[in-house]
Amino acid sequence: MNATRIVRLNVLQQSPHDLTEAEPEELSNASRIESWVPSRFNVHATTDDGRLILWNTLSTAISVFKPAQVPQVLTLLKAPGFASRREGLAGYLVERGFLVRKGMDEYRKFLLAFGQQHYRTDRLELFVLSSEDCNFRCTYCYEDFARGTMRPGVRAGIKRLVERRIEELLTLDIRWFGGEPLYGWEAVEDLGPFFSEIAEKHGVAYRSHMTTNAYLLTPEIAEKLLAWRVNAFQITLDGIAATHDCSRPTRDGQGSFATIFQNLEALSQRRDEFSVTLRVNFDKNNHPYLEELFELVEKTFHGDPRFTLDFHPVGRWGGPNDPELEVCGDDERDAVQRALKALAHRHGLKFSTLKDVNFLGGQVCYAARPFNLIIGASGKVMKCTVVLDKDENNVVGRLHEDGRLELDDDRMALWTEPAFQRDSQCQKCAVLPSCQGISCPLPRITDGVRPCVPTRTHSKSELFELLEYPTRKARIRGVAERTETAAHDKEHIEPSDDGRPAAR
Q1: Among residues 194, 217, 214, which one has the least CA distance to residue 206?
Q2: How far is CA 79 from CA 76, 102, 269, 429, in A?
Q3: Residues 374, 129: contact at Cβ < 8 Å?
Q4: pLDDT tens track for 401-438
Q5: Are 364 and 57 in contact (CB under 8 A)?
Q6: Do the bridges between strand 171-177 and strand 123-129 make them parallel or antiparallel, or are there none, so unpaired?
């Protein structure tokens, strides 16, 4: 065989590049000069003492720069951009997403992230209405209390649905709701252990949250719920007894505060890992007296980090008492919220801030997600916990006893469409990655109104809160909770984790 044929065979059997000496690798990204421009998703605010707060809603990075650094940072963030290596301050801004490569289509990048999050099939979120009746008759409630405890056939259907889906799931998220979920204890006792056991058996991440008035959350009930990994709760307190009992009486007209607070105090004595969001609904009548509640919470829970306050204005949500409710107007609502946070901070209490929703889709309503469904006590499948079955468009299907979901695709699409794609204002908004134009699908469905989140118009004040009310060192049974520290010479705040439960 001649030499030419041997060379030809070698070339066919092995890449010529493998037969020659290797060439030097291309310069790394860090050392290559590139053109950078500011991200379209940057939000910023300057404090009175000259610090600059930067938030990128797509990367979710939040950084705080000292006054001496601000002129250089602002120079780098001015259009039309500049050329630089990815190092030093420029490198830091690129790493955090405040600067992006010139020519990058960030909206397209957001679309990819949105699609991966919105259309995932490896996540199942179920709101389980263990009872559609309630032992309270709150003045602002919108529910009809048409049904009691979830039927056995519906519970069997839920089990079979989960069994059908479990092999393809990475996350199973169960949210107990009502009515009052503990009013349907028979259903909770049936399904609670099942969810926990099947998730553990198949190695599926499991979360379980309960929105409860806590009147029935006795130490014995709490023991069982925590054993079934129901360890996140939303519980409402509208002040101390004098104000709370006016808005949240029992169905026979008695006060409820004393029993609720006794159960909360007992829960706080446990060493288990759990979280309680203490929702405070305020209106014109109760907000002047809420500091008394803060004093009591401070005295009772001693800065326990498992308890977080969350302030919500009472609204006219469709109940029979709507005309009589003394709701706050928009300006008053914002002023009251700021005042309540200042008071809570003065008493050393933890409360919700922008950081709690600082993740992709952090301000998106659960009803907008295709993987989230409400299973009613009678087997109706719904999307919105405010509308429930009062509007037929919210009833998107039915769950059968064999676990089959019979869904109306048209109604599902009504709730889950990515509405920002046909809204040019949403597409231009810097807060789009957080709310995705679907912070609440209901206003678009009923009135054709864009549901802008308060963060869009109050982003600066919400950023200021992160500095005004920093994470405090909290102690629980002698164990200190670590607080975040600054990295290098720049203060920075990392994003919170996904999976926060939806509020009622």
Answers
A1: 194
A2: 8, 10, 55, 18
A3: yes
A4: 999 999 999 999 999 999 999 999 999 999 999 999 99
A5: no
A6: parallel
CA distance 393 to 273: 39
Rounded Cα gap, residues 114 and 119, in angstroms: 8
Token code pair at residue 404:
């089959």
80 upstream amide cis, omega within 30 of 0: yes
pLDDT, the chain, mean: 90
- 396: helix, coil or strand? strand
Both tokens of 45, joined, read 């605010």
Q: What is the pLDDT of residues 476-489, one digit of tens each?
A: 333 333 233 233 33
∠490-494-500 over CA atoms, to 5°?
160
pLDDT tens-digit map of 274-319? 999 999 999 999 999 999 999 999 999 999 999 999 999 999 999 9
- CA–CA dist 121, 170 (Å, integer): 9
Question: What token pair was written down for 405?
Answer: 């979901």
Output helix, strand, coil percentages for the chain, rounded to the nearest 5.
Answer: 40, 20, 40
pLDDT tens for 137-155 read 999 999 989 899 999 999 9
Taking a C-beta distance cutoff of 8 angstroms, is the pair 379, 404 a contact? no
Q: What six digits make up the tokens of 192? A: 């609670």
